[in-house]
Design brief:
This protein is mostly helical. It has seven helices and four strands. Helix 2 runs parallel beside helix 6 and helix 5 runs antiparallel to helix 6.
């Protein structure tokens, strides 16, 4: 099962919030029209703005793509977190000296199923063909603006081997006690990765809002200098690029109908 728990809902709500904010920004921009001096022709200024818009468009596509990756990772990490917590509960029970062989065997069976589930989550938590929790995302450069503003993202592998749980078992009291220590470390590891993903996601979300608002403001200025049809044409181009380069990745992970995303983008 592909990991996409809340990604669809997040995508729709996020795009809706951007749409609402953009509408307000367009209105403010038209109200605060800045006149252009006669020393420059309207066409020259417009072309310069078009170039700016293209730069912002590329940054937006890069940022939205990274947002999709981080939200996919967050869903997978939550699944792994659930498994290691349940494994700890089983390991705690297995430290008892009063268990029969049959009882211990049943605990070990459940423990093994949860362990295998972690590796399954890692293999199936993918974005654009990459295992986001399998070590495939390393030193990924994300463009956050037009002035070389970038951030680098690395997501560590979170399979049993990387969590130190590859050999953990409950076949004896001693093994169960050792497993508990290993699980405590694994739980802390998972928590650290979750905090990292949350922090990067917040940074990316802030960057996306700034890029979107700035692009809309520049586009509004173009419409003031030229006409609304030109501005609409630019936004159509931006919309198409975002759909193909960024939101299409998010939509494919969460089964969002592409036409729904198209309507949200305006």
């Amino acid at each position: 099962m592909r990991i996409n728990n809340d990604l669809g809902t997040w995508s729709m709500r996020y795009l809706q919030s951007l749409q609402s904010q953009q509408a307000l920004d367009v209105q403010k921009s038209f109200q605060a029209h800045v006149s252009v001096t006669r020393n420059f022709s309207t066409s020259t200024v417009t072309e310069g703005m078009r170039s700016q818009i293209n730069s912002y468009r590329e940054a937006m596509a890069s940022t939205y793509n990274a947002i999709g990756i981080m939200n996919t990772a967050g869903s997978g990490i939550q699944g792994i977190s659930n498994n290691v917590q349940k494994m700890k509960e089983l390991a705690t029970q297995a430290t008892s000296n009063n268990l029969t062989d049959d009882q211990r065997a049943r605990l070990q069976e459940q423990f093994s199923q949860l362990s295998q589930g972690i590796n399954k989550v890692v293999e199936q938590t993918t974005y654009d063909g990459k295992r986001v929790l399998g070590g495939d995302i390393r030193n990924m450069e994300v463009q956050l603006g037009t002035n070389q503003e970038q951030t680098s993202i690395t997501l560590p592998g979170m399979d049993l081997k990387n969590l130190g749980l590859e050999n953990a078992n409950l076949n004896s009291v001693e093994n169960a006690q050792n497993a508990l220590k290993t699980l405590d470390n694994a739980i802390q590891n998972v928590a650290n990765n979750k905090n990292y993903v949350n922090a990067i996601s917040e940074q990316l979300g802030n960057a996306a809002r700034i890029l979107s608002n700035t692009t809309m403001n520049i586009t509004s200025s173009v419409s003031s200098l030229n006409d609304t049809n030109a501005a609409r044409s630019m936004m159509d181009s931006i919309k198409a690029t975002l759909l193909s380069q960024a939101t299409s990745g998010v939509a494919s992970q969460s089964n969002i109908n592409s036409m729904s995303v198209l309507r949200l983008l305006g």
